[in-house]
Structure formats: C-alpha cells, structure tokens
Amino acid sequence: MTTPRTVLITGGNRGIGRAIAEEFLAQGHRVAVTARSGEGPAGSLTVRADVTDTDQVDAAFAAVEAELGQVEVVVANAGITRDTLLMRMSDDDFDAVVDTNLGGAFRVIKRASKGMLKARFGRVILISSVVGLYGSPGQVNYAASKAGLVGIARSLTRELGARGITANVVAPGFIETDMTAELPAEQQAEYKKSIPAGRYGQASEVAKAVAWLASDDAGYISGAVLPVDGGLGMGH
C-alpha cells in the first residue's frame, strides 16, 4: 500500500482528469480537483480555478492546503483544443491553447513546488498526448503545447531531482471519452487501424499509470515519458 498523499488534479471534473481523481480516491489518497465548472467525483474537494490566471491558481492551492494539507502530488491535466489547419489558425487559436495547456502547467507546478521543496518530497505528473511527439494535422497549437510539457518535466528533473521531487509525463493515445464518441464510425475505424492494440484505451488505464508514477514504487523514475497508447507512438 502506498503512503496516503494530498493530490491535486487540474481539470478533474470530466474525462481523463476525473478518472485520475477516482483512481487516487480508490487508493485512499486525499484528492482535490480544479474545475472551471462542474464538480469532481464524490469524496474529492473541488476548487474553482482557471489555470491561465495566477491569482486563481494561488487561491485554489490555499483552499486545498487549508482543507487537506500541503499538496504532495500535482497532476497537470487541464487542457483545451482549438483545432484548425495552420493556414486558418489565428494568433488567438495558438495563444489560447498554449497558455492553457503549457502556461497552465507552469503556473500550477510553480505554486506546488513551494510546498514540495519544504517537504523534500513531490510528484509532478504532466498529462501530455501521443500527438505531442507524433504530430497531427490541424493541431499545431495543441501538439506544440503537449510537446512542451516534456521539456518542463526534464528541466524540473534536473532542477529539483536532488530534493526528492520527480517530474514525469504520461502521454495518452486515443482514449474513449465524450470527444472520441462523437467521431463518425468510419473515422473511428480508421483511427483504430493505426493502433497496434486494435482498440481505444480507457480513461481508467491512463489513471492507473498516473497513480503508479505518484506511488512510492516510482521514486527513482523522473524525466520519463510513459505512453499509454496501445503502441501508437512507439519510439517516442
């Protein structure tokens, strides 16, 4: 059994973030989630925060610390997409995605690191995507933001590794969520052909990988990119 920790997951009200919150709760951890709307799973503490706003991030951490104690595990999961081909992509389409997905991770990790440095313990887990290193047409902004998380994790590892803090990336592939369910059947079949496992992943499979990286067993793993993609992005 791993040591119970205080865990904060950004964007934990739906999809993969919610599944991660559920997994940590099932393992007996103290769990908080940030959400712009909606609530995290039963048993978790939901705090309102937009990760593009430093003051909101600070206030969210203060609320979690008051209720559950110092954040020991932070999962940077909040993300948005604004997909369109490069020639049609506006500056705002690019900036909004990078500011949420990459800037949001930076703000959250910076705030979390204060307590982690004092405690000489921390787990930073960044939710990237197979697209970050595999690329995807129409997703220059999203892919850039998700690739950038790898640079953050590896720089953090060099900066904070000697203080008992690890920083790792989980890169999901095609996962069954509300978003993938909306794709036309032919498109879904086409995507499945490119996945060696021959199926989409489950959000719970991503959640278990995240929980393992946060566990005592993974204390000597840092700066790694762990793909949960059925073999889609092999070699990345």
From TrEMBL:
CDD domains to which the protein is assigned, alphabetical: BKR_SDR_c (cd05333)
UniProt cross-references to InterPro entries, sorted A to Z: KR_dom, NAD(P)-bd_dom_sf, SDR, SDR_fam
Family statement drawn from the similarity comment of this UniProt entry: Belongs to the short-chain dehydrogenases/reductases (SDR) family.
Alphabetical UniProt keywords: Oxidoreductase
Pfam families for the chain: adh_short_C2
Lineage: Bacteria, Bacillati, Actinomycetota, Actinomycetes, Micrococcales
Name the UniProt record assigns to this protein: Beta-ketoacyl-ACP reductase
Domain Ketoreductase: 5-178
SUPFAM superfamilies: NAD(P)-binding Rossmann-fold domains (SSF51735)
